[in-house]
Amino acid sequence: MRSLVWLILIFSISFSQGKPQKYWIVFKDKGIYENVSLAKGSAFYERLKFSISERSYERRLKTVKDERKVFDYYDLPVYEGYIEQVRSLGVKINVVSKWLNAVSAYLDSEQVNKVKNLPFVLEVKPVAKSARTVDIYEDLEIEKPLIDYDYGRSELQVRFSGVKELHKMNIIGKDVIVGMMDTGFRLTHEALAEVEVLAEYDFIFNDSTTANQAQDAPNQDFHGTLTLSVLGGKKDGKLIGIAPGAKFVLAKN
After folding, report:
1. Mean pLDDT across 223-229
2. Distant-in-sequence, close-in-space partners of 110: CB < 8 Å, separation ≥ 6
3. What CATH topology corresponds to 152-252?
4. Helix, strand, or coil here: 68?
């Protein structure tokens, strides 16, 4: 009888905690970095400059046109002291994001409450899930085919985006690097055979495979494959993307 009572108790506790879900744990500030100087010549300025590529630095400088504004608060790292206090609650950190000033982790209901009560935590919110995309072009008729590429059924999206004249001038994304984060990418698809991928990373399993893996849901890579094909896909007579000459850095999350 006593064994039965213990089994019921254990089952009740497990049921009340529920299956762990993925959450963002967002911090209120950057801890000791809050008032640090980011002026050119400061220690943090030089540290941050070496943390990004020269190409990224030049792109930022071209945008802000002032070396004093190249870096801002969001470039500062997440305060390690906050991360360690979260870990001390038995939480396994999955991803650290300095721009969100947050970490992601799988939490049960008890852990959610504990983390929320930490004085430096701003909020704990579920990681958003993607929705399945439908083919809205399936039954639409194409009027006049364009002349530079055999766009096939993708002509409508190319015409809608207004890049017809750019393609005629051979402006197809050459020397442009595009970063994409999605549910996964099926690079074996015929429309993606010519896509040049510079790097890949999977933030779910922390490896360099962005294609579906055994633990993934069937067709999880469906949406990412679509978005990548819209940008860089190339298959004459079937699909030409907006920038078929671009290079890509892919991230799966």
Report:
1. 95
2. 17
3. Rossmann fold (3.40.50)
4. helix
